[in-house]
């Protein structure tokens, strides 16, 4: 306190008691000290307002009475080992002997979901998806508020106490809005994917053996920017990334019915779609949005993939990734399996050019590739 580690707090203030904000700052100081930071360095960071985000923690649940893992198991009816697996799948901190009342209430919802008939393995996969998605959301919320709210206040020279107060007010205003927004988006997307699943079962041949093993037959596309590394060197990271953002926005805005953006990795986008013809159509059309360098390139394969934890794995995915690596900017390359799947359908507006058998890294047999473009009018 005397060294300024807790802003605005002096020894004589102890007579009047500690405020919630003081206690929150004290917890932050204790954590930073445990990580080896000196009081002088902590005090400097506090004066600069860099620790002002910390007191927001006190308006979040989790500070109440704690329970042990065995107590949680008794309260929920879940086996301790299953609770550990669920907690790990969700990616939550492994503080299983310090579970809060709200943690236990959440586990009761899990127990109800399992009691309703959802298999343990299915729930664990859902838990991994929930954990990964919500971790990304929470990380984005913190980082974006930091970049667009916290840092500007520091640059303006606002006092650390005022920054902390503004941050708390912002959190109190925004947190109650996050849940209903996410609930609405979840319900809308759930309705969409239920519709897609029903349509998919009607239009595609269902292989019972594949479905029982967690496999689905779908088309997989990878799309990235040709020459992205060189663009980064020539134009700088921010300019290059703005091009990536434009690509991702174009993909999201134009995806065909039934198409889904699975993930982005750097400048690369992975897409799945049960209808290979629609995915090929979309890929050729996407090129018209990027007439100038750097242009996207796309590789597509159609086959059986393993579905786990909201993602797709297996030979078909690996092959699609290899195919895009063989494409040039502005090109759409597809495997022979894609051509076989769309043969006889309405593809007169497209031109398919057989470019021969290509040896792919990691694959024992060459793969026949086709270049697809819009047919000349």
UniProtKB/TrEMBL annotation:
InterPro entries according to UniProt: A/G_cyclase (IPR001054), Ad_Cy_reg (IPR032026), Adenylyl/Guanylyl_Cyclase_3/4 (IPR050697), Ferritin-like_SF (IPR009078), Nucleotide_cyclase (IPR029787)
Residue intervals passing through the bilayer: none
Pfam families in the cross-refs: Ad_Cy_reg, Guanylate_cyc
Annotated ranges, domain Guanylate cyclase: 219-324
Coiled-coil annotated spans: none
GO MF annotation terms: adenylate cyclase activity
UniProt-listed GO biological process terms: cAMP biosynthetic process; intracellular signal transduction
Matches recorded under PANTHER family: ADENYLATE CYCLASE, TERMINAL-DIFFERENTIATION SPECIFIC-RELATED, PH-SENSITIVE ADENYLATE CYCLASE RV1264
Family, similarity comment: Belongs to the adenylyl cyclase class-3 family.
Full protein name: Adenylate cyclase
Organism encoding this protein: Thermoleophilum album
């Amino acid at each position: 306190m005397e060294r300024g580690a807790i802003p605005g707090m002096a020894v004589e203030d102890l007579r009047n008691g500690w405020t919630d904000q003081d206690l929150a700052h004290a917890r932050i100081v204790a954590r930073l000290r445990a990580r080896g930071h000196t009081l002088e360095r902590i005090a400097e960071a506090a004066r600069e307002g860099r620790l002002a985000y910390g007191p927001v923690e006190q308006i979040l649940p989790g500070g109440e009475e704690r329970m042990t893992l065995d107590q949680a198991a008794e309260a929920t009816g879940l086996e301790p080992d299953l609770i550990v697996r669920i907690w790990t799948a969700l990616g939550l901190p492994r503080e299983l002997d310090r579970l809060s009342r709200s943690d236990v209430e959440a586990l009761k919802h899990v127990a109800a979901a399992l009691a309703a008939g959802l298999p343990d393995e299915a729930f664990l996969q859902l838990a991994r998806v929930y954990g990964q998605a919500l971790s990304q959301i929470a990380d984005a919320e913190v980082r974006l508020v930091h970049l667009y709210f916290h840092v500007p206040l520091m640059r303006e020279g606002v006092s650390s106490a005022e920054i902390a107060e503004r941050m708390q007010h912002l959190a109190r205003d925004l947190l109650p809005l996050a849940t209903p927004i996410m609930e609405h988006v979840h319900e809308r997307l759930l309705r969409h994917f239920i519709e897609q699943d029903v349509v998919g079962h009607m239009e595609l041949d269902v292989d019972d053996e594949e479905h029982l093993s967690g496999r689905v037959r779908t088309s997989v596309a990878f799309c990235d920017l040709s020459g992205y590394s060189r663009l980064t060197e020539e134009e700088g990271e921010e300019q290059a990334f703005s091009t990536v953002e434009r690509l991702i926005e174009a993909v999201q805005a134009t995806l065909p019915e039934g198409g889904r953006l699975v993930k982005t990795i750097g400048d690369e986008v992975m897409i799945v779609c049960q209808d290979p013809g629609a995915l090929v159509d979309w890929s050729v059309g996407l090129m018209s949005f990027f007439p100038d360098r750097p242009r996207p390139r796309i590789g597509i394969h159609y086959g059986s993939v393993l579905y786990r934890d909201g993602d797709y794995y297996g030979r078909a995915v690996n092959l699609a990734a290899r195919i895009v690596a063989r494409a040039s900017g502005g090109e759409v390359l597809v495997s022979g399996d894609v051509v076989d799947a769309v043969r006889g359908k309405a593809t007169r507006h497209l031109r398919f050019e057989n470019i021969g058998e290509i040896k792919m890294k990691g694959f024992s047999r060459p793969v026949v590739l086709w270049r697809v473009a819009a047919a000349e009018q």
